[in-house]
Specification:
about 20% strand; about 350 residues; three-stranded antiparallel β-sheet; DNA-binding; alpha+beta; five-stranded antiparallel β-sheet; homodimer
Chain lengths: ~350, ~350
DNA sequence: GGCTGGCACTCGGTAGCATCGAGTGCCAGG
DNA sequence: CCTGGCACTCGATGCTACCGAGTGCCAGCC
C-alpha cells in the first residue's frame, strides 16, 4: 500500500494529467497536491511510484504520466462519490421528465444523454426480457410463404420475428392459407399468453400438420435469445470519440469496436461479470481499447436486473464526473422504467 | 463547355488527386492523362481551368486541387458506369444470398455492406410504409395506465406505439379494465384492417366513452408519420470516416451529423428531391459536409419507391467505384425486398 | 532517517537558416 | 497555338543552437 503522501502525489498527477494531457512534473504536483514538501521530495516519491508501476515517463526529461495501475489506484481511492454538476443534474432531470413513448427510443436517447454528460460515448444495452411473460401472441400472414409473429411482453416490449414458410418442411411447402394462419395464431395465443418467454415453450399439437408446422416455426422464432437481438444495443455520442484521442488510428479502432453491437454487448457483460464498475485499458479485455476506460452500471426494472449502461472514453477520463453521471442515469432510468 | 483537352486534363487531375490526396502538377498530368502535349501547354490550360473555377491552388508553387465545380464536372462526365470489382461483386452476391430474417437487421447490414464496399460510411433509410395497408391491429394492456398498439402492415413492417392512458382525458382518468381494452382492440381491428395507414383514419364511435378515448389515442399513435420514426435510419461503417479525413475536427463534425438520424433522413431526402445522384460539398446543403460527397439512390419494393441508400465520404471520393456500389446494392436490395 | 536546497544533466521543442525541388508563370521562337 | 527555356515562389526538409521543464543525485540540515 502507498503511504499517505505518495497517494496524494499520485492523485495529483492523475488529476493534472486528466486535465491537461501533459506529463506532470514535480513542481506542478507541489502546487496542486496540497502536500507541503519540496519538489525534490516529490521527485523522490515519484521515482518510487514509477518503480512500483503507478507512473511512467515518456522520456527522461519529462514529467510523469499515470499507468493503468495508476488510474486503477486513483479510481479505487476516490472516496465519496462526487455529485453531478448542477447544470448536468438539471439536464438529467428534464430528460427523464420529458421521456416518454417507445422504450427503444428512450434507451437510444439515454445513450446520447450519457454522451452529453460526459463528452464520451454513451452505451445502453437494452433490457433482456427473459423473464417477461407474454401478453399477446399473434401470427399474421403476409404472402403465401411469409408471415410474422408478433408478441407483446408484460414489460411492454414488442417482439417481431419474420417467418419464412419455405423453411417449414414439406407440410408447408405449398404455402398456407389465411384460415390456417388464423388457427395457428389463435392456438398459440391460447397456449402461450401468460407463459414466461423462453427457449422451450411447449405447444400441444392441433392435429393439423400445416398448422402445427407453422406453430413450431413461430415458437422457435420467439424462443431466440433476446440477448442476441442486436436492436438492443444503443450507442450515442460516438463523435466525441474523435475529440478524445489525437491519434486518428485510435479513433478508427475505437469506433470500429462501437460499431459491432455484438462486441459491445460482450464487452459490457464481461466487465459486469467480473464485478467491475470501471475497466481501464487492458482490463477491458480488448486490445484496441488499450487507451480507453469503460464505466458501467446495471439498471433494474422493478428491482430485477434489466440491462447495462456505460460510458466509453479515454483512459484519462474525468472519472468522478463520469462515475457520477453513470450512477445518476442508471438510477433515474431504473426509476423511470419501473414506474410505467 | 470545356474543350476536349481541358476536360482530359481536369479528369486527370481529379483522378490523381483522389488517388494521392496530393496537389497535382502539370508533369503528372502529362504522364497520366494521355494528352500528348508539353507540360507548359498543360500549365496554360490549368491556369485557365483555375480561372474558370474548376481547379484551385493551395499556394503559388504547388500543384492544383479540384474544386467542388471540378468534381461536379468529373462526375457529370464519367460516361459509362464502371462495373464493380470482381471481389466486391462476389461479396454483394453472397450478402444478398445469405440475407434473411428481420428487415431492420437486413437494412442495418446493408448499410455496413455499403461501408465495406466503398470504405466510406453507408446509409440506409428504411421503407416508409405510408402506402401500406394494415394486416393486423391490436391493443394490448400492460398496466391500468399503459398499453401498446401493435400493427402489422402489408409490407411486413411491424409498428409499435406505446400509449399512456393518462393522456386520454377524463374518461380514462381512472385507468381502464381489460374488457375495454379488448373491446377497443376488436373495434379497431374491425375498422382498420385493410385500410391504408395514414394520419387520418376514421373510426366510428362505439358509444362507450372510455373505449372511444382509447381508440382515439391508438389511432393517433398509428397515424404518426413513419418518416419520423428514427428506427428507420441505419448507418454503417462510420469508423471509416476517421480514415477519410486527416483533420480530426472534420471527423468529429461528420460523425456528429451521422449521429442525428433526423438530419440524415432530411439530408438524403433533400438530395433525392433535387433529382441528384451525387451531392458534392455545399451541394449537400450542410456546412459541416463541405469536404464531403454523398451518393444516393432510391430503392423500390415491388416497383414502388420504398427508401434510399447512400454513401457518405470525402469529396475526393472514388466516384466510379462508389457509384457502382450504390447502384448494384440498390438494385439487389430492391430485388431482395420484392421477392419475399 | 527523512527532508531540502543546490546542481549537473537530459532531451524534446522551437526558432533560425540554408537548401532543395516541385511546381508555376511567362516569353520568345517555331 | 504549341513548346522549350528560364526565373521565380514557397513549402518541405534538414541542421544547428538554444531554451527550459524536468530529472537524479548529493551533501547538509533537522
Amino acid at each position: 500500500m502507498l503511504d499517505e503522501r505518495k497517494a496524494a502525489i499520485l492523485r495529483a498527477v492523475v488529476e493534472e494529467y486528466i486535465d491537461t494531457a501533459q506529463p506532470v512534473g514535480s513542481a506542478h504536483v507541489v502546487k496542486s497536491s496540497g502536500v507541503h514538501v519540496s519538489s525534490a521530495t516529490v521527485r523522490n516519491d515519484m521515482a518510487t511510484l514509477e518503480l512500483e508501476g503507478y507512473l511512467s515517463q515518456p522520456h527522461t526529461s519529462a514529467g510523469r504520466i499515470p499507468t493503468e495501475k495508476g488510474y486503477r489506484f486513483f479510481v479505487d481511492n476516490l472516496g465519496a462519490p462526487t455529485a453531478l454538476r448542477g447544470s448536468d443534474a438539471v439536464q438529467v432531470r428534464s430528460f427523464f421528465d420529458q421521456a416518454h413513448g417507445e422504450i427503444e427510443q428512450m434507451l437510444q436517447d439515454t445513450s446520447r444523454l450519457l454522451g452529453d454528460l460526459t463528452s464520451y460515448a454513451g452505451v445502453v444495452v437494452g433490457a433482456q426480457p427473459a423473464e417477461a411473460t407474454m401478453r399477446s401472441v399473434q401470427v399474421v400472414g403476409l404472402t403465401s410463404t411469409a408471415a410474422v409473429v408478433v408478441a407483446v411482453l408484460s414489460n411492454g416490449a414488442v417482439e417481431k420475428h419474420s417467418i419464412d414458410l419455405t423453411q417449414g418442411g414439406k407440410s408447408l411447402a405449398g404455402g398456407i392459407g389465411d384460415e390456417r394462419v388464423g388457427a395457428a395464431s389463435a392456438h398459440l395465443a391460447a397456449h402461450l399468453i401468460g407463459a414466461v418467454r423462453s427457449g422451450s415453450m411447449p405447444v400441444p399439437k392441433t392435429g393439423d400438420a400445416a398448422t402445427d408446422a407453422l406453430c413450431a416455426l413461430a415458437v422457435k422464432a420467439l424462443g431466440t435469445d433476446a440477448a442476441d437481438d442486436p436492436d438492443q444495443v444503443f450507442v450515442g455520442g460516438t463523435s466525441r470519440i474523435a475529440s478524445a484521442f489525437d491519434a486518428i488510428e485510435t479513433v478508427r479502432e475505437v469506433l470500429g469496436i462501437l460499431e459491432q453491437q455484438y462486441v459491445v454487448v460482450t464487452l459490457l457483460r464481461d466487465v459486469i461479470d467480473r464485478g467491475l464498475q470501471v475497466a481501464i485499458g487492458t482490463e477491458t479485455g480488448m486490445a484496441p481499447l488499450a487507451d480507453c476506460a469503460l464505466i458501467v452500471s446495471p439498471y433494474q426494472i422493478e428491482g430485477e436486473p434489466a440491462g447495462t449502461i456505460g460510458v466509453l472514453g479515454p483512459a484519462r477520463m474525468d472519472y468522478p464526473q463520469a462515475l457520477a453521471a453513470v450512477a445518476v442515469v442508471s438510477h433515474r432510468l431504473s426509476q423511470r422504467l419501473s414506474e410505467a
